[in-house]
Fold each of these.
Amino acid sequence: MSDDAAIVKEFLVESYENLDRLDQDLVALEKDPGSRETLASIFRTIHTIKGTSGFLAFNQLEALTHAGESLLARLRDGLLPLSAEITTALLVMVDAVREMLRSIEASGKEGHRDDQSLIATLTRLLEPQSANRPTEPQPAEALAQPPAQSGGMSGTVAAEQDADDLHHPDEALSEKTPVKTPEAVDAAHVQQARGAGASDSTIRVDVGQLDRLMNRVGELVLLRNQIVQYTNSTEDSELLGTSQRLNLLTTELQEGVMKTRMQPIGNIWSKFPRTVRDVAVGCGKLVRIEMEGKETELDKTIIEAIKDPLTHLVRNAVDHGIEAPEVRRAAGKPPEGLLFLRAFHEGGQVNIEVTDDGAGLDYDKLRNKALQKALITADQAARMTEREITNLIFLPGFSTAEKVSNVSGRGVGMDVVRTNIEKIGGTVDVQSKPGQGSTVRMKIPLTLAIIPALIVTTAGDRYAIPQVSLLELVRLEGDQARKGLELVNGAPVYRLRGKLLPLVYLRQELKAEIPAGDVLEAQSVNIVVLRADDRPFGLIVDEINDTEEIVVKPLSKQLKSINTYAGATIMGDGKVALILDVLGLAQRASVVSEVRDRAVVEKDNKHALSLGGAHQRSAVLLFQHGEEGRMAIDLSVVARLEEFPRDSVEIAADKEVVQYRGQIMPLVRVSDVLESTQQNTLDKSQDSLQVVVYTHNGRSVGLVVDRILDIVEESFVVQRQSARQGVMGSAVIQKRVTDILDVPGLIAVAQCHETAVAAQV
Amino acid sequence: MATTQQFCTFFLEDQFFGVPVQQVQEVIRYQEMTRVPLVPPVIRGLINLRGQIVMAIDLRRRLGMPDRPESELPMNVVVRTEDGAVSFLVDEIGDVLEADEQNFEHPPETLQGQARDLVHGVYKLADRLLMELDIAQATIAEEGNKGADLA
């Protein structure tokens, strides 16, 4: 009984694998109907399934595969041309076979099915469809028929390997027909017949077994860490040597076991040619699929986790991305669209890209859709950048498909893709060029079981932060520690390179009781800059310890329900440390709330100055203008600050220029342009010119200013709009009234001015 | 026909409790724990049990009893549950006892408070009463401060 079960199980596993290949082969065949090699391969696969199912007395399965085999024999022998109808029928047959196998797997029986119509279709296709078929093959047909029959019979009485042998006469007969079989096919066939030989070097292992093994190795790694820690404090050289060897061996073992769990991504990609074909046929498109990096390996659990998101992306690309042939032709593209899958290793992660050469994202459509669904306000919509609009597709309930097809457009797509990918510590990103297509790029960790993490301490407890979310570490000491942290209406922030970084105190989030005697006004502040949902935030911890490879252990359900922890791990000293769930923590601290908030905040930051009137913190460059005047330039338009010796100024076309980085850079004297009443006496007496370099469209212009004073970051309001050209208005900066320069305006004025002067001359 | 069941017994304050011995994985002395912020106080922390991470539930808190003095370290009774192993923190470990089904009674109606849900029944032993703990109920960490943190 159990023997039988084992044989059936093996048959199932083998058949599933064969069917996957069949899907690929059939699609390949459609592309290249003349490939006898592909045909031979398909024929063998079906033949094997038929033989074994006969042997195991799965009669329905045998009958169906027999009908398929007969049809394939005709195709292989060149007696029938391949048509789309035949391909479809064969694919339907593959599906039916798969269904039966599933039923056998579940219940041990084939299940009650009616495949008569399918068998009838397959048999009907066998017949020459019209009278215009060549008459020559007739006799061959007659010859080919009976052996095929006997082949089917033999399956019921003979074992699988015999079936292959018995099959030879059949093939030999058909070879008498005019079509010649290349030697290569025959050789391949022999190899296939000996396919059993492959099992000598590989064995199938239950995944559960591997999981247990992996767990044990994880524990061994922890034990090793502990032992190494103990022995490091010992003088005993023998013990030290032994522990070092243990160390090495454990690492090798860990790598070895992890490798056994690795699978090439090609395993899931192999289903895509079929998926693409089905979807493309379903929506009347022509799509070719190309793959690169099939052999890129990932942990099995990760492969499982990305299977559905990836399938969704592929279907999406065909359904939404690639246009119908006539649309493509009108756009001057080849009617056949290209779907390109690419996988490669980079920096300890695997990158997977799904690229299509379709229409790309329609930003206006996205914007309108978001408006229509009230996901954003009209004001926000008007100000969103393309990148922000692209991110809209990841919002729940967002779909731009005009009509809901059975493939996609149900609004359960991209947000689920993103959630699933982020769940395993990956990221998703979309890039799109209108008219040229889009690329979805995923970055996925190699494995989930062992991850690099940053260990921090807060309120006496250690926590692990997965390195994937880590951007950088900032440590403020002394004065900085006291002054660096500022409040925006009570919310702490830090200016990180001119941008405000929201801060979260881990202590507060974890509601840690502050141990007695702990001084909160610490001498230093440790900020762990993290990224959650593309939004950076700073996590303030008491201490930053180290980075370590940690073994992730799951938490019990009760602890999992609190979104703050992603798991737990055991540290070198044997104690347990919690792994922080960065996304959960960010949500808890309301760093990530709604995408729309984020978009608006960023915009406001960027454009506070140009919009004028907005009360925002901005960094400005202050310079002296005349003897008393002060002016400011928005720091974000400043490319560089330079100082040129006075004699390096040359004259070209009546303009002052300097040689700068291999280019000729025109100089604009701010005081001249503004026709300031203030005499620029300072300027004349100096030996060098202080220049603010402004770069626009790859061209640099140097603004000569009297003296650069300072760079300050302040919140100010542009109060008085100026009538003067080149000046945006005035504001109170550092308690002094300061004119704010409108650099592009100023340069425009300078150019007019010069042309006017030139005209006069 | 008398059927008997074996119990792993332990004390909380001066009360005598037991859990079926088949469900007990092991009994170990006090282990250092890692606090888990934001969870109900019933969960005292996580223990490293030879590489397995086990949640420790303080039965005193679960039963609404006052905390044991800090000088007294609890013992761990590690039980198997559907959601992995869980450790119960108890004051002291008693013997493994055999109790007769005939001596079993459901808890009296007068049993009030948290114990009401947690005590499966009472065995009348010769010299004392043994309360059988409902393991599934005891592992639900919702008692203590109910709204500990739902934010």
Amino acid sequence: MRSGLLFSESQSRIDRLQIGALTGLMVIGALFVYSATMVSESAAVAAWYSQSWFRQIVWYVLGSGAGVVVCLVDYRTLARWSYVFYWGAILLLVAVLIPGIGSMRFGARRWIDLGFFQFQPSEFAKLAFILAQANFLSRPPDELRIGGNFLKALGLLALPFLLIMKEPDLGSALVFLPTGLVMMFVAGVPGRFLTRLLGIVGILGALFLVDVLFAPPNWQIKLEEYQRRRLLVYFGIQQTPPSDASKVDRERLRKQQFDDSHNVRQALISVGSGGLTGKGWRQGTQNALGYLPRAVAHNDFIFSVIAEEQGFVGSVVVLTLYGVVLFCGIRVAGQARDRLGKTVAVGVVTLLFSHVFINIGMNIRLMPVTGVPLPLLSYGGSSVLSSLIAMGMLQNIYIYRKAY
Amino acid sequence: MLIFDQLRKNDPQLRAVALAALAGLGVLLAGLWWVQVISGRQYQSNLETQSFRTIRVPAMRGSILDRNGVPLAENQPAYHVSLYLEELRPQFDAAFTVEIARVRAGLQAALEQREAQLGRGLSREEKKRFSLGLKEKNAIRQQVRYAVASNVVFEVGRRVKVPLALDRPDFERHYQARLALPYPVLRYLKAEQIARFEEQPLRMPGVDLEIQSTRVYPHDGSAAHLLGSLRRDDSSTDGEESFFSYRLADYRGELGIEFGFDRQLRGTAGAKSVLVNNVGYRQTEHVWSQIEPGSNVVLTLDLRIQQAAERALQSGPRGANTAGAAVVMDVNSGDILALVSSPTLNPNHFVQGFPRGEWKRITDVHAQKNRATQENYAPGSIFKIVVALAALEAGLNPHATLSVPANPMRPTRGYYQLGRRTIRDLAPPGTYDFKRALKLSSNTYFITQALRTGPERIVNLARRFHFGERFGLPTRQETGGNLPALERVRGRWTDGNTANLSIGQDPVLVTPLQVAVMTSAVANGGKVLWPRLVQRIEPVDTFSSQPPTVFPAGRVRDELGVKPGNLAILAEAMLADTEDSDGTGRHVRDHAPLEGLRICAKTGTAEVQDEDNAADGQTTWFASFAPYEKPKYAVVVMVENGASGGGTCGPIAGKIYQALMELEKTAPNGQLAEARPKGAR
């Protein structure tokens, strides 16, 4: 009896464990967005409904709603529309580059200003890409052995990647690479294609880095100056001023280098000074005193705040919650009724993992500083919405898994 | 693991993904373990160095108040401009980079020129001459550091409109030894300088205005000797924390009350750590060792009397440079109402620095010496008070007369022939009874009576006055005087010695304060009192539960044990000294009306001999008490190198009495020296 199975203890319709972990992450997110933002007086006097923590909760509610909506339609039906989503996302990614539509912030054009909400198309492009790529890869495995199809899959990956690079948003663009590669790997694209691709990407990446870091200015790939400097900081390279530079220029350069490494150093101090058990909620000084810059403490560097205030114990709790979400996702992939579901699930898992790894890694200097949010913990509507929709997709695959 | 069990039968790709994810999370976990647990302490200390500064905060030094609560020493805010060198460090480094590049370029050019000259490449050994050693680099570093700091100092000077220059050796010394401390550029800013400095819109990096509490002596030179002086001393005392990033200026008492009650005045320094934000502004302060403010010391001094006495003394023969002392003492309680030493100095200079030439003046005139307590003087004829009492006690009939012959060399003066020695006498020849002898200060009479009485009796009585002994004043400014020991008097002692003793010469030496105690004892009926300088030590906080430490008044050190009748005879004779037209003390009224005040006095003029026994000026005295009927005040005036006790010191004492009388008229119940109820201001 199918209906009997549906609500049985062992075969629950939804993945409760994953939802529990997600809820835990959202609670932590709301608490620490509060802790990170309620330090400045201007934030504390604002009306409660316009404060970051409350907005974050609103996004959690909206995102959870969206996730539920995603669950209502069988993912196979969604996949049929995947190219529509994909081209829609591409259209938005193009639109965001047009000065009248995309709004400029911090030297990058990543947002479309909807008044109440700064919409970030790249977050949704990630999901559209996963769906479209999975749809493309779910064809019979034999077809994947054809080089032309592999190139098409690559094209599917390259288009949003390049558009996002153009914004520029290096971090968001980079997460496409592992996501696409792992999806191809799981879908059954032959290993030789992938090793070649990896080799090419590796060589290109190395060339890119060498070029950016060491080549004379005229030979360098046009990268935003701040991106280049972040990479320089990550690799610990001190810029030497040209010998004819004026005193003022030297001074400016010195200050710039200090500022560049500032975020990383302060994030490290935050995380490290948290120690084993942390200083307690809202007791962290790095954020409160502004050593950890206010502009990033509640979004890209929210992990520093958590790690400083809750210590290693808090870090482990966060990692464990993400681990539960990730392995539940892999289990979903394993139980998916078809290759489409499996590929989508793996794509979502890889995307989530990439975000977590890059973001936490940059807090402890394992990774260079790139503006990648920590899913569900970082403040930001687009990120929260897309993360929860992605989780909805996982649940969707779980609901329509093999057992039925 | 649950998930792996479920994946077992699945494809290997998913297992690979799961393993990769697990490995990734493991890497993060290991990284976090490394950062948070293994190196947590190091980051904690990074956090502290970037955000904490520890500061030693000296406690607010207690005030020194006069008996009416008028502050004689207190604290006021002072503003200084200081350089914070650590903030200038980036500028130092930048300037160094530029300078060293310039020097290197110059050396390189010289090297190339040399090579061109020789037409060959130089050997490594030869090239060494054209490279920079550590020593040269340090010299360049030092030079650019000075240049940068000097520019900043010049800019500060431009802002506050005071020409300022940075003293290079001083700056370098500070840099080497006390880098963590701010370098003071301009101290004690005046109000308009503060305004000029503050009105500049841009804060200059590395420069800041400091506010410190500074010791101020509002009455400058008044009671300067008694109050004492401070010495800059930031060091930690026992039981305090000893490591600090910064120490705020602190002072320690070196002399006077500031020294004697330093522990009570100082309180206990506190320690605070200041949390600074990312741009260095102070955020919060955490006081982890509480400051205990110093207590107030309430003196027995009355500032009005003190200042009157100072004015009176400075009307002496050499004005403000008159070397001398004046003591006003309450004869019944032992309270010192005024303790003047002249010439004076300004204790503010010890804190703020001496003006040019001032220190030389001080050393030239020995202004630092508290002449009221710190110097031995021959008492001269005022010691006849002791001799007179001893003689009366020994049975001298005050009405018995003695005929004094005229000095053949100076017929208007008497003399005393002791063997081959002729002792001069300032009093005329004639017939003397006790009263006349005292008021004219006849040496002949007193030598005669002293020889009859015997030196032992005199020294015994002098010992009960405690001449030759210290009071144990808390001021580090005391000498005990000198009195020959009884053993010496009993041993090899000649009549010549007795003669000297009886007219207050040679072996006997006194301080003006000792004379005041002696005079008080005569006035109060024979009680030798402990002089009291400090009434009480009270906590600054008036609501403090801590009770003040009170030093009782009227503590009797010794009883003279003489017949009251003899004291009365002495007092009557001393009265005659000022009231009779031929009394040596009659000049007390020269410049002061003093109607209705009957003063008992004894004058003295002691010859001072230098080391070669040559005459070297004379010490003049006026020891007195009043009113005769019911004595209240003892006034002792001493002037070095005066003309005579009566002529030089008498009018000074007169002015002091006049001030006392005027103050009594305005005092609530005519009582100036009355001890006030506890805690009243």
Amino acid sequence: MKTHPSAVDWEQAQSLFSIVLCIDQEFRIVDASDTLKRHIDGLDLQPLLTEAFDISRPSNVTNYESAHGYLDSIFLMLSKDRRFAVRGQVVETTIDSKAALCFFGAPWLFWINSNCPDVRLGLGDFSPQDVQLDQLFFMSTEKKMVKDLEQLNGELTQARTELERNQAAKNAFFTQMSHEMRTPLNGVVSALTLLQDQMLSTDANKLVTFARSSAKNLMQVTNYVLDLSKIDATEGVAESEPFELEELVTSVHNIVAAKADEKHIDFVTVCQAGMSAYFLGDLPRLRQSLLNLLINAIKFTDEGSIHLKVSQINHPDSNQEMVRFAVIDTGIGIPIDLQELVFEPFWSSDACSDGRDRGTGLGLDIVRRNVQLMGGHIELKSSVSKGSTFTIDLPLPRHVPDFSANLGHRKPPIENAKFAAHVLLVDDNETNLMLGAMILESLDITVSKANSGLAAVKLARELGPDLVLMDISMPDIDGFEATRRIREFASAQQMPIVALTAFESEAERLLSREVGMNEYLTKPIDRQKLAEQLVNWLPTKAMIDDNTQGANENHDGLVELSILEELQSQIGKKNLETVIGKFLDEAAQRWELLNDAIAAEQTKDCARHAHTLASTCKSFGLTQAGTQLAAIEQSILSDGLSNMEPIEEARVMLQNSVARLRSSVESLT
Amino acid sequence: MYGLINSSLREMITQQFGEDQWRKVLEASGVPEDSFLTMRSYDDTITFSLAGAASEVLGAPVDACLEMFGEHWVKETASKSYGVLMDATGQEMIEFLGNLNALHDRITSTFLDYVPPEFKVQELDDGRHQIDYISQREGLTPFVVGLLRGLSKRFGNTLVINDQRSQEVSVGEHTVFDVTVTPA
């Protein structure tokens, strides 16, 4: 049997609730708790509830009956003088056996704090179980917590700002140092290049070769040290340009082989058989990463060998095709506890106390950053005294080169290129001007010189050169401003401007494009690189010869050998043979398709096959066959298949041209 | 202890002795954190390490440092962050001390694992009062002395501690103060 407590008395009610009101059927307050009496005057006079309070919730309570309808609702009431407020609930009770209402509640703490902060409430104004004070404490603490977090955030922001400021100062220092170091090196390398063109004795030539190689090495070391600032400055997106794997491996090999030779270490590069020849990727970053790994390998290997192995793998999770570059050495190895550290910037092993040059400690950090930027992964496996293997896996998509597109703009082989052009060379450094002019003149270019930005603008206007080679940093107006002014009277097509800067910076490169420069080159002037760029903008002697003397044809004119030679210079003989093999197969198939279409009298298909065949024939130097097939295409489109005679002539022409192509390829050296 | 205590300690040293001294205290303490979050619970050793380091760096006994901290707690931390609650707890010192347990009880709903100390106030002869401080933590009696001094300043009273003695307890500490609180 359940037992219930008897009704609570007045004292017990006040103990449970600090605010208690007894309301009779006339809606008068017949009694009020002590807390209420302390804060509101006149309650002893038994006023109507609506005379003592404004009832804000429920909003339509005006008398006993209406209040009785809200027994399960919260009541929010403000004293008439707006100095006190209460919140609570009304229950039905009896006073002297008559029905009555009783309000149980508490001071409405948050309203009073907000509206009457001078009203002093004590802990005694709240019953112990009232959670409003607990809430107040919690909210005060939370407010303080927010302040803590704001302060912490401020400290972190400040620390980041300082870090960025320091980083910017470091970058500025590196950039300045780059400029200061490259300018004199530019002079040395350029002068040695020119000196080597002179008639020198064998011994002198050897010495110059040695000096030039050393100067280039020094330039490489300078670049190596400065790479970090470049990475910081260009943090962001890796480039995705087509490159030839073999060219990459060969260039890396050529740079590193001499160093390996010096230490009598075998250096072997191995590309997996059957790999694609071309890929899309960030060649400069990839080359830089491989060079850093290989230079490290040589540094820490005293005997044995270094291998660079390139292979195609599938990503273990995504099955995506990846290219793996593994640099394997038989050097001193890295203890397991240091293997994580070697990728940290500025880290170099103290254990290495044999006087070996430990470098800047930036190389592997640069590699790690590069690999991450290219979306790849680097791994190290190493055993002390046995050697190390650094493995880079990169997601490099294969690239299928469009050789025919390259042929649209025929360039002569760069080596020994000669130009028939007038170039305005701009540099505030007299030595650079002299050396630059000598290099340009060695390419048969007529050179005008300007030693300031203002002079450059004036001479560009007066002389109208074919191209301007523009230094960036100059005392009066810089190369950007000079370019802006030149662009006011000469467009990029009319007068190409190539920036020639002492230090490479992504921001500067972007600005050079914005102001209307056509290209961006870094000093020192490398004659071959310069020629490679100039050939895009300037007429060469070979082109002029072509125009005046006709194409370089073989004796029967069926194959243009110059086109084959150019293709060979671009992709190498082996690749050329492969590509031509494919072309011959495809040409045979296409001819079959053309014949089938003729038999089926499908005019449009005939024209399409003739067009495709004409286009590919021209790409491989079968110009006459191509021209004839193009004529057939036009004839079919205009007259249909009424005249079959030219098609038969084209068949004979194609047959002879193909035979000539086979023999021409074999005879290429 | 909660971050509130540690950050208050940092605030006191920074305000009264400067940022450099705080750096030295932090370094001497071996505490790795420099910032404390009010509502996060930290290991007690952090607070005691900071107090010990403050004593070493500032060249004052640990008790003096804790006492100074008690005063700072009332004047700065409690009054500025919990002013309304401090006001509600009492308008004069003895009333405040009498209600202190109720205040601490309400704190337990915010700091969930908080075990508050207990204060008992008894009126003695000659306007004196006995204040019993009972805590499960050891070593914080000097902090309570600072609290009493801070409260007397808050309410504009003069406080004389006539006697202070420890009672034997199995856990923590129990200190009995005999005080005279008079209007200034």
